[in-house]
Design brief:
Strand content: 25-35%
Largest sheet: 8 strands, mixed, barrel
Helix content: under 10%
Structural class: mainly beta
Strand order of the largest sheet: 2-3-6-7-12-13-11-10
Number of helices: 2
Distance between the termini: 41 Å
Number of strands: 13
Shape: globular
Length: about 220
């Protein structure tokens, strides 16, 4: 069953996935500047999560994030929100959302184990994002913090959102599907990630994956 993600309140007023991605970087590149742009691909090698992205910002419905596709992720931005598109100098949090579903495939099903009630990502695991502006380069993030709030409490959680702008922070947000498939999803799975640098995919196998990290 497709479940929407709880929408979160503004907390301050300041303004097919790639077939193969190398997990063994070989070549360092100078750190470039990658302008903010829409995400087009995401990869978390530790848990083999690969995602392409819906065009445009995440859809919302009845005050909930509701990605348009079950099999694609989306980035959330809005004119009255401070959240950023991904880039090397993103001034605030990048928000990436994706559906989970009970009993059927969904893009973020592998982020959280509802049977064990635990995140499948671990501290230090890497997330790679390629954008419309990055070409063959990928923005690299490292997992830093993990949350499983009740949906109604997510909007007011300073451990997730901070209390002001948070440059370099990225969030992945999905629903937690309970072990009992007949129960409703009442919690979100949230992982915080920290920007670390840029990966060059030009030298990887088949020219498709990240090479070595540049200095952040």
């Amino acid at each position: 069953m497709l479940l929407a993600l709880t929408f979160f309140a503004l907390r301050h007023q300041e303004p097919e996935a790639p077939a193969a991605l190398s997990e063994a970087p070989t070549t360092t590149v100078e750190a470039p500047t990658i302008e903010q742009a829409a995400a087009v691909e995401m990869y978390i090698p530790a848990i083999n999560v690969r995602a392409q992205f819906d065009e445009g910002a995440c859809r919302t419905k009845d005050n909930a994030l509701d990605p348009a596709s079950l099999d694609k992720a989306c980035t959330y931005t809005a004119a009255d929100r401070p959240y950023s598109l991904p880039g090397t100098d993103a001034p605030d949090i990048v928000v990436i959302a994706g559906h989970t579903a009970a009993g059927v495939p969904a893009v973020f099903n592998n982020l959280y184990d509802g049977t064990r009630n635990e995140h499948k990502v671990h501290e230090g695991d890497k997330l790679y994002v390629r954008t419309a502006a990055s070409g063959e380069k990928w923005l690299m993030y490292s997992a830093t913090d993990f949350h499983d709030p009740v949906k109604e409490g997510l909007a007011d959680d300073p451990d997730v959102w901070g209390t002001g702008p948070m440059p370099g922070r990225l969030l992945t947000i999905s629903c937690i599907q309970p072990a009992n498939l007949l129960e409703a999803s009442v919690k979100n799975a949230v992982v915080g990630w920290s920007y670390e640098g840029v990966i060059d995919g030009a030298d990887a196998s088949n020219g498709a994956g990240p090479a070595a990290p540049a200095s952040a």
